[in-house]
Design goal:
With about 110 residues, the protein is of the alpha/beta class. Helices cover about 30% and strands about 10% of the residues. The protein is built from three helices and three strands; from the N terminus they run βαβαβα. It has helices spanning about 30-45, 55-65, 95-105; strands at about 10-15, 50, 70-75. A three-stranded parallel beta sheet has the order 2-1-3, with helices on both faces. The termini are close together.
């Protein structure tokens, strides 16, 4: 499936927060800790801005991210997998053709 969009700017929202840490590994590492670590490395390597959810939740983080005027906002998660959850997760804003095209990329398997 060819991808035809070429966004010029991204913002990463770090999935979860200290208050809502997400999944916890068998050895006690919280998903938020992984998400933050990976996001900081992406920020350093690629220069992409990152946004933390904090107490404002996803809505507040999205508003902060919109302040950067990005083409695409990525809410980054490193999900755990079990018998019910597997594969990837793509959330797309309805009603916008660019967002819909990004959502269609979820079909790609590599």
């Amino acid at each position: 499936f060819p991808v035809t969009i070429y966004p010029s700017s991204f913002v990463l929202i770090v999935g979860h927060s200290l208050k809502d840490s997400g999944a916890i590994t068998w050895n006690g590492v919280k998903e938020f800790e992984y998400n933050l670590s990976v996001a900081k490395r992406i920020e350093k390597e690629l220069g992409l801005p990152i946004v933390l959810r904090g107490s404002t939740g996803i809505a507040g983080a999205a508003l902060k991210a919109l302040g950067h005027k990005p083409d695409i906002i990525i809410d980054m998660h490193l999900n755990s997998f079990n018998k019910q959850a597997k594969g990837c997760e793509v959330l797309v804003l309805n009603g916008d053709e660019k967002s819909a095209e990004v959502g269609r990329c979820r079909r790609w398997r590599g």
